[in-house]
Every structure is written in structure tokens, then in C-alpha cells.
Amino acid sequence: MNDTLSEALNEQLNFEFYSAHVYMAMAGYCSAESLDGFANFFLVQAEEERFHGMKIYKYLNDRGVRVQLTGMENPRNDYDSVLEVFEHAYEHEKIVTRRIYHLSDLALNDREHATIQFLKWFIDEQVEEEAMFDSVINKLKRIEKDSNAFFMMDNEFAQRSFTPPGV
Asked: Which of 26, 133, 158, 167 is buried most, with the most CB atoms less than 10 Å from its CB?
């Protein structure tokens, strides 16, 4: 694996941990609004992002690349509504998708077949992530005026959990 690709993968590893940070901040907003189910949704999302970061960490180690951790900027902590939180999360996931596509392009250009195969999992994951956030946003828009439906959704998200793939 060339230096450009290994450095880009290392940057993505750090971005995955930053993503966990972003989702923790979103959980904090929801908790402050006494929306514990929505907070749980984002706590689980943060757990997933840390798993993604560790997946890249292990891959880089397996390939003999030394991981370099970097600092991160402060995430956004304040929102006007839960809908705005999910819209921001969706936009964040679109950034992640573009970054994964860039990694895939680098791997394809270098004919780095092991990395191409490794990144396929992330590409599939991003399709699921974007679809999930888009669906939640559409539901939130539909139930905007129905407080009962909103609290049912909050209760539903309280049940969400993360099970690492393959476990």
C-alpha cells in the first residue's frame, strides 16, 4: 500500500472517531431535551462509528501501517429541534460517504485489491446509513404536529442497540 492511501485511511480512521464525537454531542442535545430515546439513538450511532474506526485501525495494523491519532475539532452541540439534529447527521453521513468513495478511488487507481475489498464493507454501510437517516427525517417531517407519534418514536429509539457485525 502506498503512502498516499495509507495516510488517507489513517485520516478516515480519525474521522470515524470524530463522527462518534459528533453523535455524542447530538445525544447530549437530546438528553438535555429529555428525549432519552433519541439520545440513545445517537449513543448507539457513536458506538457504531467507534467500531468503524477500530475496523480501519485493525486493517492498517494488519497491513503494517502505523496508526497516527490526531486531534479533532469541536462538534456542534446546539440545535433548534430533533429534526435539525437528524438533518445535520444526514449531511454528516453524506460527507463520510464522499470520503469512503475517495478512499475507494485511491485504492482502485493503485490496484490495491485488498483495500478495495476492505472498503466494499464501508460502501455498503454508507448506503444503509444514508437510507436510515433519510427515513427518520421523512418520518419526523410527517409527524411534526403529532406529539403522540413523536414520543412513540422516542420510545422506539430507546430500544435501539448496537451489535457488531459478525457477532
From this structure: 26
Contact present, 55 and 103 (Cβ < 8 Å): no
Residue 120 cell numbers, joined? 466494499
What pLDDT score was predicted for residue 167? 54
Average pLDDT, whole number, for the chain?
A: 93
d(CA 41, CA 61) in angstroms, rounded, equals: 30
Q: What is the pTM of this model?
A: 0.90
